[in-house]
Design a protein that fits this description.
Elements (H helix, E strand, L loop, with lengths): L14 H9 L24 H11 L1 E13 L2 E13 L3 E5 L2 E16 L2 E13 L5 E6 L2 E8 L11 E10 L7 E13 L5 E12 L4 E12 L4 E12 L2 E7 L1
Length: about 250
């Protein structure tokens, strides 16, 4: 099954929602799953920009275990599964009339809910500037262009937060039909081992009428040497009256 994730770069909003809607999974209201309480902040500064640049120049792959739930009316179903996320190394490209770098993002896996197991597969093009900050993305039916961007912090300690980018998404490159807008922020927490930093990118997504469609959190764990690993994806969304939460780690 091919599914559109309708998300900003490095986020997964809509991927699992559309699979459940198409394949008969459960639905209903729901919010983002609560993250575990992080360990006490560490004083060490971690090279965030170096770590995310490494992901784009060397590629990245992580396999995550999916848990969560979906609710339809008064009925709630658990969700389980696995997904493998891959990010290819960047190549030179042109996007929205400007010279940029392009990386291919793919997701493959399965998800089970309400007695149904369905395959997941999606692929999209991510576009970044010279500092590897997202400036756009493209997949069929979703041409997203950054309205504003801010560089990743060069270094960070636990407890920091800030803005990264805002996007307008259209049906195609003519940019005639606006479908959604997105805002990406970040927050940092201490890694679980006490010698790494969790850099979480938070994406809030709205339709053309500024109604919330959901949110995602994508966490990269960055070592002191600037080596990143995608370690967690959290999302909440409502599609066609079906609401759900997902926590993949």
């Amino acid at each position: 099954m091919n599914v559109s994730k309708r998300s900003a770069p490095l986020a997964l909003a809509g991927l699992l929602a559309l699979t459940l809607t198409a394949c008969g999974g459960g639905g209903g209201g729901g919010g983002a799953s609560n993250a575990a309480v992080p360990p006490a902040p560490v004083a060490t500064s971690f090279p965030v920009q170096q770590g995310l640049a490494y992901a784009f120049t060397h590629g990245l792959q992580s396999t995550l275990t999916v848990s969560g739930s979906t609710t339809n009316g008064s009925t709630t179903y658990p969700l389980t599964g696995t997904l493998t996320y891959s990010l290819g190394a960047v190549v030179n490209a042109t996007f929205n009339g400007a010279a940029v770098q392009q990386a291919t993002e793919t997701i493959n896996g399965t998800i089970s809910g309400n007695g149904t197991t369905s395959p997941l597969t999606t692929s999209s093009q991510l576009y970044v500037n010279a500092q590897y900050t997202p400036v756009g993305s493209y997949e069929a039916g979703a041409y997203c262009v950054a309205n504003s961007t801010a560089a990743y912090p060069a270094t960070a300690t636990a407890g920091q937060a800030g803005d990264l980018a805002s996007f307008s998404c259209y049906t195609d490159s003519t940019k005639r039909t606006l479908t959604s807008t997105q805002k990406i922020t970040y927050v940092t927490t201490a890694g679980s081992d006490g010698s790494s930093l969790d850099f979480q990118m938070l994406s809030n997504i709205y339709d053309a009428a500024n109604k919330s469609l959901g949110s995602t959190g994508t966490t990269y764990t960055i070592s002191a040497a600037g080596i990143p690993k995608l370690t967690r994806i959290q999302l909440t969304e409502t599609v066609g009256g079906i609401s759900f939460t997902i926590d993949a780690k």
